[in-house]
Amino acid sequence: MDPGPAGAAGPAEPGPGVRGAGPAAPASSLAVAAVLPAGGSGERMGVPTPKQFCRVLERPLISYTLQALERVCWIKDIVVSVTRENMEVMKDIIQKYQHERVSLVEAGVTRHRSIFNGLKALAEDQPDSKLSKPEVVIIHDAVRPFVEEDMLLKVATAAKEHGAAGAIRPLVSTVISPSADGCLDHSLERARHRASEMPQAFLYDVIYAAYQQCSDYDLEFGTECLQLALKYCHVKAKLVEGSPDLWKVTYKRDLYAAESIIKGMFGLVTLSSCVSEM
Ligand SMILES: Nc1ccn([C@@H]2O[C@H](COP(=O)(O)OP(=O)(O)OP(=O)(O)O)[C@@H](O)[C@H]2O)c(=O)n1
Ligand SMILES: O=P(O)(O)OC[C@@H](O)[C@@H](O)[C@@H](O)CO
């Protein structure tokens, strides 16, 4: 995967999510690390390049997410789960964009397994590891580039108090439950439900214990870390209303949206390489 044309450093600072002076940091004694699952194939994007490596304004999408997290001084370590085949691409991105505090682990075949691998790297019993076990761990999808410090602070602080916390957003569409014959069984009252987004944060011991107990079925088919904390550790996550920018880049249109948000900050008019290949 080509991480981008040589020398094309893409937009300089400030990147997306920059808003003046950041919020106050959590108590300096609170050790916080982040796990970024980035081992997916991006099938729904419909292009050969996994979406986390698709370039937006000549810069890989994941680099924007790393930039957003690196702006947060109280996040000590960022562990990124990447497939073996993309490990060199990821190392090139880290070097080209001078990302710091980033450690790489091998991704798993599912998102939960990728996250679990990231958590294992932070466990204190890892030999030869420069990483230390955090008190709170933030889990954030690598394809959600527009995360701001105040949201990270809110979920980390809430996780310290409640054991788990996660961003939520109002539902745009009503959720329905189909019957076996493909007809409507029932619909959920939209006002009483929310969409689960990222970032999420956990007391490290809670989420690591949850993943260690996790069934193969949950590791294979689950999509919700908050549910693992509830099911295996009986921890009810605090839900934190997030901004509209927390959405996950999933389809082609999302690359256009990400590009327009970033262009809006720089007035640039350049098609992202994945978008122009479409
Ligand atoms: N085995 C996997 C699958 C997904 N992810 C990561 O989890 C995040 C959110 O998952 P999703 O949007 O589903 O990414 P993909 O699985 O790549 O997308 P798709 O389902 O369209 O293939 C992404 O950063 C993705 O790279 C991961 O680390 N390991
Ligand atoms: O792997 P998928 O993109 O289907 O799922 C990821 C999302 O479920 C997840 O990021 C949020 O819903 C919060 O859990």
TrEMBL record:
GO terms for biological process: isoprenoid biosynthetic process; protein O-linked glycosylation via mannose. It holds the Pfam family IspD. Pathway: Protein modification; protein glycosylation. The keyword Cytoplasm applies. GO terms for molecular function: D-ribitol-5-phosphate cytidylyltransferase activity. Residues 1-23 are annotated as: Disordered. Keywords: Cytoplasm, Nucleotidyltransferase, Transferase. PROSITE patterns: ISPD (PS01295). SUPFAM superfamilies: Nucleotide-diphospho-sugar transferases. It is found in: Cytoplasm, Cytosol. Its main location: cytoplasm. Its EC number is 2.7.7.40. Belongs to the IspD/TarI cytidylyltransferase family. IspD subfamily. Homodimer. This is D-ribitol-5-phosphate cytidylyltransferase. The lineage of its organism: Eukaryota, Metazoa, Chordata, Craniata, Vertebrata.
